[in-house]
Amino acid sequence: MSRVKSVATGKSRRAMVGGMPMPGLTERVAKAVFLAIICAVVVLPFIGVVSTSLAPAEEVTKAGGFVMFPAQGIDLSAYRSIFAGGTVTQALLVSGFITVVGTTIALFLTCTLGWALSRRGSVGNRPLLLVVLVSLLFNPGLIPTYLVVQQFGLLDSVWAVIVPVCVSAFNVIVVRAYFVGLPDAVIDSARIDGASEWKLFWHIGLPLSKALVAVIGLFYGVGYWNSFFSALLYLNDSSQWPLQLVLRTYVVNGVELGGQELGLGSETVPPQTSIQMAILMISIVPVLCVYPFIQRHFAKGVLTGAVKG
Amino acid sequence: MRRDYPVLLLATPGLLVILAFQYYPLLGNVIAFQDYQPYLGIDQSLWAGLDNFKVIFDGDPEFLNAVKNTLILTVIQTVIVFPAPIVVAVVLHSLLSNRLRQLVQSIIYLPHFMSWVIVVAVFQQVLGGTGMINNWLRSNGHDPLHIIGNVEVFRALLTSQVLWKDTGWATILFLAVLSQIDRALYEASSVDGAGRWRQTWHVTLPGLKPIIILLLILKLGDSLTVGFEQTVLQQQAVGVDASEVLDTYVYNNGIIGGNWGVAAAVGLVKSAVALTLVLTANKIAHRLGEEGVYRG
User: What positions does the domain ABC transmembrane type-1 occupy (chain A) (predicted)?
Assistant: First the structure.
């Protein structure tokens, strides 16, 4: 490829950066404002949620429900009351179980299937790949899926939230594409040394794909942590509700949480807004904690799927 | 066969899940042709011929309303929501500082990882009667705005929620494609006297064309699936007329209302239409000389 040297022509005396002329001042200001507004629109609501959940009761009551910048120090009573052992604590345990167990199962099944499909030349490889690909094209439908879950006896069990979505065909394709791209030499030499298929997968394939597995794991994890509709569909007993359903009932629909539901008995309950924001916070925090570590791998994970899939 | 059984063994559990929850439910669609009664099951429920499809062909007003709402939302999403990340990606791509770009990216990806429940809750806290904006308006002597639960602005509300949640995330693909554009193209066009606008028009956007077409095709397949969780969450506040979409129609009629056969019939037609749309769009893309989703 011949390199075109950047030439300052008579028409444009502006400096060149990466082949593009240096932007003018107006353009730079316009872009800065545009991006600042977008970032603010994303960040400010979160700040409001954190502030309200941490603000002292009097300040929240005085502000009529919402505090942007708590001026009178920090009050953790909202958090204390939701962790007191009532509805929210229970929901947190359910959500934790669904997320941890679900993600583990999902990663295992997705990676094993992806690995198997990446072993080109083995019997049935093509047709099996086709089975996975074709399933991406159609949607089995809400009612039939419900009937299948019912038929398997999963209704009113957290497994109904976990099992039906534990293998995403799309993620299988992404993982497969990545495994296919691993250097053959490493795998072949291990095979010559007598490694079994399982050993190849577990000791070579997976360790070489840590970043991708982490991203896929985040996708599954977030999916399970956020699962709302399947829980609404399959779990009728409110003692089995995950956090998202509690969030819907007590925050979106605005049902008031009393001392009984919170596990506080007859003690005074902090303002509902603070409690609502605290529930909102604990449903956001786990994602926020994992996000920074995996964020830099996003592009890789998404692109392996989109470009090669 | 003997040589390959370990590979097949590894594939089995994952495949079983796909067969059980993607393929096996397809059989359940037979209840679209039945007068399905849960206590009788599929075996013993009576056959109803095409009776369940009458809602569709006779143009039941509630069904037509759901179709109308769904299509309007699809159009809004294609015209407003779809181009938004392209604009953001082009602006981000034109930034000179890598660090700044990465910072902005980490911020705007975030809402994608919030559930719809969280997004709806956050919107209520910001725009609701006692929310952030109305508090501010009241304390400054203005009249509060009635946004949440208002039928007239419901579509705008849904749209802004989708924009907030996924615009940032959707830039990821466009940015990746943009980073592949050969810098020499910019240099060459610059030598030919192209300014920054002309470069965007003649280099950046053509570079994005294949991915835009690909995503539009995929979107077409989803065009009858819009705003399901969002709507289920907010239907109480705004009423069925304004908010019913096809998916909520299936949910409300089938699982809540017990009209299993009718709901399954609507769902079946919906899936069939979606599949046809994707296959057709893909064909058209090939005719136009684009890659499309797959080669077939």
Answer: 92-294
